[in-house]
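Action item from last meeting closed. Structure (126 res):
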């Protein structure tokens, strides 16, 4: 399942610089972000966002450009939603327990479209 959102179309939306918190709506560029999210049923979910890269208007700020973040959904360099991160962290704990305790969460990780994460957690536990 794919969800799409475009935030680039409305230049009136201001975003604050993460360093100086100066608001800016001066768009430098837009780009696509793809995030993995928790599955719906047994279908993996991908969220496709179009986000803006903005100029910081504060001359004293060292940061020249920054990317807008969607509160509660994105963070810098993140490729997974916070909900999926929590799920995968729970899977890693369960895999570390091994045996029957780790079997069900490993299945959940495979359903999330993250079989490598479950395998990596299993390798780290051994």
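Sequence:
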């Amino acid at each position: 399942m794919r969800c799409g959102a475009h935030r680039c179309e409305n230049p009136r939306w201001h975003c604050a610089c993460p360093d100086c918190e100066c608001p800016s709506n001066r768009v430098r560029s837009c780009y696509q972000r793809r995030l993995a999210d928790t599955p719906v049923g047994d279908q993996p979910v991908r969220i496709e966002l179009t986000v803006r890269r903005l100029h910081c208007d504060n001359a004293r700020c060292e940061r020249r450009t920054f990317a807008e973040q969607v509160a509660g959904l994105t963070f810098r360099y993140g490729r997974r939603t916070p909900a999926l991160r929590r799920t995968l962290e729970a899977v890693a704990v369960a895999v570390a327990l091994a045996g029957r305790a780790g079997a069900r969460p490993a299945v959940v990780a495979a359903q999330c479209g993250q079989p490598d994460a479950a395998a990596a957690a299993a390798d780290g536990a051994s």
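Note appended to the action item: The helical segments are 82-97, 99-111, 115-125.
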